[in-house]
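Support request, please re-run this one:
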Amino acid sequence: MINSNAQKRQRKSKENRLNEFIDCAKKIFIAKGYNATTIRDIAREAGCSDGLMFRYFKSKADLFIAIINEGKIRNEVTIEECFSFRLSKEDQIYKIMEVYINKFKDYEQLIRMMFSRALNDPSFEETKTLFKDTTFLKKQIEHFKERQKINDISNNSDCEALALLIYSVTFSIGFNRQSLLGYSKEECLNLAKRYSKIISHGI
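Re-run finished. Output below.
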């Protein structure tokens, strides 16, 4: 019988392997593009067999979707780290927008690939579900509700809608303007500053 410590080590080893595969896949997708990348390419980069890779991911599309999910999780963790009641609500909103803008730039090529595949590849149907899923905003919503308790945000404000508004506006700034239209990061951050002021005055 495997003891609990051994089980924890096995679980940790599996998590480390999974993260390694995702990091390697991200590197190869960016270097070669989605169509030119194969599971064999990613397995070679990770130093393992194709068979082992397929034990973790059923297809190339499945692996790509895992990369997007992993990015959302890292986003959420980074945003949680900037929650602070010492910040004004305007500065707090700006901090969240700043994190998003930086992340959209980091994942720019992968997001482009994702949109392209989602429009043309039936195996990417799941990506539409990913974009509809707003559970990654849960911690933000909870933080805004805590601010409502100290009257920093109006009790009439819809905290879920607020979190979604911030994300949607920042996607427009961080991806559409920065990645597609070529606006500089500084221009995007300046615009985010202006938006954060408008949003905070409305809540």
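Residues 5-9 have pLDDT under 50 and may be disordered. The first helix runs from residue 4 to 32.
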